[in-house]
Amino acid sequence: LCRGGLAERLCRLQNRERSAISFWRHQCISDANPPSDKPGVLIVKILEMFEECTIQVAICQQLEQSPATLSSENAVIREREPILKVLFARETAAYLKSRPQDVIHIYPPWQKLLLKNEDVPVIMNTYFSQKVLLSEHSETREKTCGLTKMLIRKNIVSLAQTFRLDDPDDDFCQKSLDNQAACAPQIHNNGNWKEHSLAWSAVNDSLLEMVENQGAVGWREVQVRVIIQRVYCLPAKEGCRAPVQGKKALCEAPLKSSDPPNVRLCFLVQDAYGMFSEVQLQSPSSADDVEQYCRRWEGKFCCLSGMKILQRTTRGRALGLFSLIDSLWPPVVPVKVPGQSQHSEMMTTNLSPPSFCYILTVPSGEIHVEVDEEEQISNLYQPPAVHGLKEILQIDGCNERCSFWAQVLYLRLQTKHSVPVNQREIWLFVTDSTLQNTAHSTPKVVAVSVAASCVLSTEIREALSAASPLVFFRDALWGKGRIICVERTVLLLQKPLLCSAAGADLSELTGPVRLDELDSTTQANSICAVRGTIVGVNESTAFSWPTCNRCGNGKLELCPQDRRLLYCNECSEVVISPVLKMQLEVFLSCPSRAQSRVKVKVWHKMSFHALSTQCIYYEVQSVLGKEVELLNCYVHFIASHPDCVGLEEIVLL
């Protein structure tokens, strides 16, 4: 706020006003009987109540005598006593919890407003109000009624109608006002619909109008009808990956952990005006539920009620969310424009993308999301557009969402020891038919970074640990030559029922997978195939260790009963025939990089056929000059001074 400006002065005035109201209410609670004979106290009895534009309107009749001296039977309203329309702010109404027949004391400084062509005066500035209980019978009624929720009629006033923007031929706003019948059946696990029990329930199709009318505290009986565009999981604040269990391998811990991640189910919705909101369910969810909810909910109409605004975010503060919104913009069908007829020429998709979005939340343990699963897919729904990897690599934009179907060949966990294991990113090396059948100028394998904020289901983690699965990457992020799976990216083993292929070649791989050979274009953090001649062996780094022949545990101990035998703590048994693993670093002379010193870390258990156990221990010289044919390797680093390449032998999934 500008120092000394009007906004700063108004903010100070509002703070003083809130403090004065809180102090006054504290005094009323301290005093058993607040003074009603104070000059200027207005005494009213509520006859009818309704809500309009977040203001509670009470039709009241003024009492001349304080009800403190009257019994409930004698507090009968005479016809000649004036009728008043009393306005209570949302905070005041929540404090009073008023009902018809309640008596309210309104203390100064209240104000009376006389409207032109209106017979009923309006009472405003009613912050200093107190409800009065007339007798013990009223106290009993108060306690009993306090257990049941008061249903208050809401008058939905369209902003277009307020500012007289309505088209004479457009009866939508009138329908919105007339639609006071019960709406919204509730969803259950079996998908059946039941009639809603709320008597006063109105349906709106504008998220922004609901926010304007209902405020941020919570939408009660009123509902808004939207389209579910995407369903995904977001990590909870406590953590986004399961902790590492026991002595599991570094790259296997985030994938094989049996503890489910702490996540919450979310979905991105869009109203008839093109406005987006993200709904976050606060109750604990499982990432395994995403696939079924994607199939059941995406593209379907949904009624939201009881929502609470968690945050109003903008493009600059939520780049990930708005990159997903931008991928769904412009709408595939014309959307409504506030204040204009649906038949107006202005009703086109030539609209600027949204600049803000409301994050909505639902109180835990309550159902406020009602989805009609039997209804047909909405025309406003935009399924993910599936592209080939070759086409994605040619996109010029930055922070573009993309979806593709690829085969995972190899995975690797980030090895920065300063980062906790459950927060490290995973690298997936993938390919598809568009890369395998392409020319030399395009890489045959692409690295996909899976950030810690991307929630992986148990099914995906198990598939990545066991085999080379075909995975559908939905709404991944492409930019600066990288594909990243971030929050709101979903990995599935099955292709969605609805997806737009856009003419891309999505055929599955039939022949053997080929890797790019090591050459001058090879980059670090990639996989390649290398061939060459062994010109050196680093004997100082060579070592071997025994492992369990049953579970593969590499940390064997001496058996307490017989020190000549080895013991496995994982199997709790003596290891009779241990498997010997060996590591050796060799230097290759590669024709594709003749000027580089290529160092390869070789594992004896793997497919380096040029070596043997006897060679490693006894005849190192006999290894020199041996030819190595197309060894699959991971590229650790590429240095220019001196010109050196560090590789590690790998086994593809």
UniProtKB/TrEMBL annotation:
GO CC terms of this entry: nuclear chromosome; nucleoplasm
GO terms of biological process kind: double-strand break repair via homologous recombination; regulation of establishment of protein localization to chromosome
Domain DUF4502 intervals: 1-113
InterPro entries found in the cross-reference section: DNA_repair-scaffolding, DUF4502, DUF4503
Domain DUF4503 stretches: 270-652
Domain of life from the UniProt record: Eukaryota
Pfam family, one: DUF4503
Name of the molecule in the record: SPIDR protein
Lineage: Eukaryota, Metazoa, Chordata, Craniata, Vertebrata
